[in-house]
Amino acid sequence: MSTAVLIGFLVAAAVLAWWAPPPLSRLEPRSSPLPGWVGKAWGWVAKRWSGPRKVNRAVVRELPETLDLLAVCLEAGAPMTNAIATVAAVSQPATAAILHGIDAQLQVGRDPQDAWGSLADHPDWGPPARDAARSARSGTSLVECLRVHADEARRRRREQETKRARSVGVKSVQPLALCFLPAFVLIGVVPLVASLLGTFTGR
């Protein structure tokens, strides 16, 4: 039986050696075979692609509170320009840039309907901006519309956070499986191989 156990351990060692990650010498940085300008171009493309995504996530995250603050300022009797400037002053850069853009248009005398209309196609600010343009045209109160849009934006934010959390759980399955593989081999494979070899060899 001792021979079978020894062979089983050898099989397990071979499996673990095959599975083991490459030595550190393989992970040392190597010079890129691509020309320098290719690497720089790729870095520029990656930065340009990831930058807007980060800004968009920041805008989505801040939108509900921003709309609530605008509603509070307008409900307190502040003019639209003052409300926008006040909220922009306490907002994060991504949201502040949007509000400053609207404020700048209003400060130079552009019609509020046209100023808000410039955000009509924005993926996140589009719906409240279109209602703000209609409010500027008709003279109706914007407070309740802003609160409705804030609630809707909060719901969308929760859905996106739930989706990201679920994707993290799916992506973590493979690393966890690799962590448990050595224990599975030692506890499950080695005794089985040893038992089979013992049966065949009669030891």
Automatic annotation (TrEMBL):
<feature type="transmembrane region" description="Helical">
    <location>
        <begin position="180"/>
        <end position="200"/>
    </location>
</feature>
<dbReference type="InterPro" id="IPR018076">
    <property type="entry name" value="T2SS_GspF_dom"/>
</dbReference>
<dbReference type="GO" id="GO:0005886">
    <property type="term" value="C:plasma membrane"/>
</dbReference>
<dbReference type="Pfam" id="PF00482">
    <property type="entry name" value="T2SSF"/>
</dbReference>
<dbReference type="InterPro" id="IPR042094">
    <property type="entry name" value="T2SS_GspF_sf"/>
</dbReference>
<feature type="domain" description="Type II secretion system protein GspF">
    <location>
        <begin position="67"/>
        <end position="189"/>
    </location>
</feature>
<keyword id="KW-0812">Transmembrane</keyword>
<protein>
    <submittedName>
        <fullName>Type II secretion system F family protein</fullName>
    </submittedName>
</protein>
<keyword id="KW-1003">Cell membrane</keyword>
<keyword id="KW-0472">Membrane</keyword>
<keyword id="KW-1133">Transmembrane helix</keyword>
